[in-house]
Design brief:
Length: 138
């Protein structure tokens, strides 16, 4: 292993150790391994919204009748925003539009194992973006 790689791994380990004091394992997992990231080709609906901090999430949805069969996100936001967007796309996939619209930020935070209070607005932003995208369907 090169010295640079060793140093990088040490720093990564320290950052993760600190993150584990604040964030649940599921938040860290969705941040490090985001699901459904990137633009969706030929979406049926899309919307992007910015939160109180200025971070933006865009959510793309592909529908089969009224079921969410394809869904993805893009964001320029923080780690918790990435985790919220990723987890929300997993939660919404396979649901009818009306069911997906009912997912609340509390549902999302519960799924993620909680968020620090200064990042609860990341969950609000993800949920509001999904709802606004679905509102444009058909
Ligand atoms: S959306 Fe503002 S800090 Fe995550």
């Amino acid at each position: 292993m090169s010295r640079e790689k060793e140093v990088f791994d040490d720093i990564e380990g320290l950052v993760l150790k600190e993150a584990r004091k604040t964030y649940s394992p599921r938040v860290i997992d969705h941040f490090l391994n985001p699901r459904n990231f990137g633009e969706l080709k030929d979406p049926d609906c899309f919307n992007a919204m910015s939160g109180i901090c200025g971070d933006t999430i865009g959510i793309y949805v592909g529908l089969d009748d009224s079921t969410v069969t394809r869904i993805s996100f893009v964001t320029n936001g923080c780690g918790p925003t990435i985790a919220c967007s990723s987890a929300l796309t997993c939660m919404a996939k396979g649901l009818e539009i009306q069911e997906a619209m009912k997912i609340t930020s509390n549902d999302l935070m519960e799924y993620l194992g909680g968020l620090p209070v200064e990042h609860t607005h990341c969950a609000d932003l993800a949920v509001n973006t999904l709802r606004s995208a679905l509102a444009k369907a058909g």
